[in-house]
Amino acid sequence: SLEAIRQWQSSYEADRQRNIIGQAIAKNGLQDAAYQNHMLREQKHHFSLEIQTLPVTNQKASGRCWLFAGLNLLREKTARAYQLEDFELSQNYMAFWDKFEKINYFLESVIDTLEEPAEGRLVSWLMTSFQDGGQWDMFVNLVEKYGVVPKQCMPETHHSSATNGMNDVIQTILRRTAAEYRRSFQQGTDIQQLRKKKTALVGHLYGVLCQCFGQPPAVFDWEYTDKNKKYGILRSMTPVSFFKEAVNVRLDDYISVIHAPTRDKPFGKTFTVKHLGNVAEGKPVLYLNLPMADLKALTIKQLESDQCVWFGSDVSHAADRDKGAWMADLYDYSGLLDLEMNMSKADMLDYRHSAMNHAMLVTGVNVVDGRPNRWKIENSWGDEKGKKGYYIADDAWFDQFVYQVVVEKKRLKAEHLAALEEKPIELEPWDPMGTLA
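The structure assignment produced for this chain is given below.
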């Protein structure tokens, strides 16, 4: 009512502290006014356990973090084997095949759902599913089918580094095709005829991807110079043979462990997500849900074996990207506004406040009295922010905003290994754990 508004006006005018805070907010914005600079005292780039890794990479204006994190994990094995000071695997090569497979996956999903209503939630979700992001198992599918190549064999192009314009064009084609297929099906067109059309379109879009990314190499020579200035060359390699010889990592040995403490996802169970993938005949996304204490213990065990850890998190909260800090209490909005802001991790997931949106590598941890207090993170946003592109996350941020780590299965407990043999519980595509890094 107007009377209530007048009372609130008078109350605010009489509150000197709120007025002063309001002036600070009006000048600097909520985020800067809530910034707790003293938190940076804990941003110490010293770790009791740290893996020496290569210089950071840069995904630029693309959503390929999951590919960068996966390739950055693999390149460490190659760099050690060949004593390299700097080395990258081609992110463009992997992005090409990911886009190619996602085009086919999208069209297969359209054909599989022709009897679903166009205005239904499933079809609506599918129309937004073609994007840059991905998951660990999607990365595995690509590597196992197409191998990898050194960056020198397929360097970046404009559209590999800035994907929005190309994505918009391809999304338009795919959505137009979805509408066309649905009308044709309703008019009696046979599914096999639609599949023939699909094959022709996939072939044409292969050419579009070649125009944007370049054509992937089929055979190549890899030349390198090691840290001792010694020249080397591997001749007549295919992407698959290069992966087997120069990288030689058994990707089947790894599993995605998640922390999703919601009522519908009991710990100790496995989960998959409907319609989430890239390679149509590839392995589905698979998660093992465990308490955070287990997730951290597995991460530290892998670091102790001198292996980095691919992980998925939400980087949209409690972040200072310029300084390279993720700290749970970096911003005091509650104190600034006199409002309660805290939410449980389960509520953040259930009520869409938080979800996985970025993948990186854990490369170190500081453990004091048996407990971690900060984590070293290798990002893929270039070397101008943080400490030459390396970031620090405090343990409270890790608790709240880390949702997934990829670890070797051999580190799991017996009951967790047994859970991997059970049929996974299927989640709907729009489940919070269906988001892509």
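Interim note for the steering committee: The CA atoms of residues 344 and 400 lie 8 Å apart. DSSP finds 16 helices and 14 strands in the chain.
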